[in-house]
Design brief:
- With 324 residues, the protein is of the alpha/beta class.
- It has one domain: NADP-dependent oxidoreductase domain (TIM Barrel, Alpha-Beta Barrel), CATH 3.20.20.
- It is 38% helix and 14% strand.
- The strands form three sheets. The chain has an eight-stranded parallel beta sheet. A two-stranded antiparallel sheet has the order 1-2. It has a two-stranded antiparallel ribbon with strand order 3-4.
- Helix 3 runs parallel beside helix 11 (294-301) and helix 7 runs parallel beside helix 8 (227-234).
- The longest helix is centred in the middle third of the chain and has 15 residues, at 138-152.
- It starts with a strand and ends with a helix.
Length: 324
């Protein structure tokens, strides 16, 4: 396990721009000469997949947004560094989708070159129906699935979900077949569209799925009302997308100092502050923020180290963000 001293040195070495303030209980000079509690181990937060008990590190990597932008470029060296940082510092979960441009193919190739294909927990998606309520051609859906297997370089994938509830009867049916054939270990559905929340709730209540993928953040807590409690009740794992509200939360805290009391739950950057809020909900399995920078990846993984806020602290965090 990493200690506070080790983590501070790591962040400084990689150039992570963490919001360390003089009042933080563990912060000190770059040499780490005087760090209160410096050698106290920071435990990695892991969560069990309800369907199996398999444990996953609670912070992973998403491949939309900036990751997808870099994947489309000729130089993907930055993404190699991000994947190295993910696995090298305790992470495993990589979330992708065919609709994220070159992300799935580039990540699969890089993982193969790095020899980490079997280390990564691969979560990808299926949707040939589009997001407007169209019908899925089963043959096209099967072809998309086979392409994902080839790109990621594994005969058995960890998780495949129906992306944004595209023709769930057809596409989830195909995923059930793959699970029965043991070609995929877990299946599920995703949405980040409020207009689909009611449908998600219905699917969650009736279908034998292992995971859902949702949007959830400190300033976007709708999922706390019905979806997250239902996921707990049904024993379904939860992947959280957009834990930073995409760019919303960064705009909100621009120019704002991280409060010193964030150190009470081992948050030493705004990224960790936001991630620890999300992870402190007991229904959440893994948060997968996207990034194309290795030092951001390491900073994000810090959200899965040490303590998490309790209910009272969560209320304090919400009040702070709502007041900005």
């Amino acid at each position: 396990m990493i200690t506070r001293r080790d983590y501070l040195k790591l962040c400084l070495t990689t150039g992570a721009t963490l919001s360390l303030k003089p009042g933080l209980s563990w912060a000190a000079d770059p040499a780490g000469a005087t760090i209160k509690g410096a050698d106290t181990p920071l435990a990695l937060i892991t969560r069990a997949i309800p369907a199996s008990g398999e444990r996953l590190p609670a912070v992973g990597l998403g491949s939309s947004a900036t990751f997808a932008e870099v994947a489309r470029s000729e130089d993907v060296a930055a993404l190699r560094e991000v994947l190295q940082a993910l696995v090298g510092h305790g992470g495993r979960v990589f979330d992708t989708a065919p609709s994220y441009g070159a992300s799935e193919a580039v990540a699969g190739r890089i993982a193969g070159e790095l020899g980490i294909t079997d280390t990564v927990f691969w979560a990808t998606k299926l949707n040939v129906a589009g997001w407007g309520g169209g019908r899925a051609d089963p043959a096209a859906a099967r072809a998309q699935l086979e392409t994902s297997f080839q790109r990621l370089g594994k005969p058995v994938l960890d998780l495949i979900q129906v992306h944004n509830l595209g023709d769930v009867p057809v596409q989830l049916g195909l995923l059930k077949e793959l699970r029965a054939e043991k070609r995929v270990r877990y299946i599920g559905v995703t949405t980040t569209f409020p207009r689909q929340y009611a449908e998600l709730e219905q699917i969650l209540a009736r279908e034998p799925i292992d995971f859902i993928g949702i949007d959830y953040a400190i300033d976007n807590r709708t999922m706390e009302e019905r979806i997250l409690p239902l996921a707990q009740e049904r024993g379904v794992g939860v992947l959280v997308y957009a834990p930073f509200g995409r760019t919303r939360l960064w705009q909100r805290v621009r120019g704002q100092a991280l409060p010193a009391w964030a150190a009470e739950f081992d948050a030493h950057s705004w990224a960790q502050f936001f991630l620890k809020f999300v992870l402190s909900h007991p229904a959440v399995t893994v948060a997968t923020p996207a990034t194309s920078k290795a030092h951001h990846m390491i900073d994000n993984l810090g959200g899965a180290l040490g303590a998490l806020p309790d209910a009272e602290m969560r209320r304090r965090m919400i009040a702070l963000v709502e007041g900005l």
